[in-house]
Amino acid sequence: PPIRVLLVEDNLINRSIMERFLRHMNVSYDVASNGEEAINMWTAAAEEVRSGRDVAVPGRGPYHIVFMDIQMPIMDGITATKHIRRLERHKRIVIIVALTASSLQSDRRAALAAGCNDFLTKPVSLIWLKKKIMEWGCMQALIDHDGWRKWRS
After folding, report:
1. What is the pLDDT of residues 13-50, one digit of tens each?
2. How far apart are CA 78 and CA 140, in angstroms?
3. Using an 8 Å Cβ cutoff, are 85 and 93 in contact?
4. C-alpha to C-alpha distances, 19 to 67, 86, 112, 145, nearest whole angstrom
């Protein structure tokens, strides 16, 4: 089934590498450059699902995975993750994978405590990125029964 990703990354080089890889894997994605944009895009996607207009239009999701940079301007990834987790109590659950240049255990614990499901250090290994997309994306896509049925028809 198709997988939708929201890539949240402020660094142009990192974003470009990730976008090129997502395109290579034929993954549909949208991009936000900070946590505030990510919340707005995720909220819009969740509203599309809730209203029954669950269509794959850029900027609308629904998202199966969010790759969330942790250190960004305007709003960091930890704050954005906490906000999304508070909002999704009434909406679709999304997998959030933290992306950070830090490999400190304290940063990993902070990301997981904020609500991230997984953690990747930058520079991101494309092999690990592919594994995470397959692992989390396929699980989410299969849980999304309505989306899977639409994809099959």
Report:
1. 999 999 999 999 888 899 999 999 999 988 887 676 66
2. 22
3. no
4. 11, 28, 24, 27
